[in-house]
Amino acid sequence: MRYIRYAFLGAIGIILISVAIANLAAVQLVLLPDALADLFGFNFTITLPLFVVILGSIAVGLLIGFVWEWLREHKHRSEKSKTQKELKQTQREVRRLKGKQNEKKDEVLVLLEEAS
Question: Where is this region: Disordered (predicted)?
Answer without folding.
Answer: 75-100
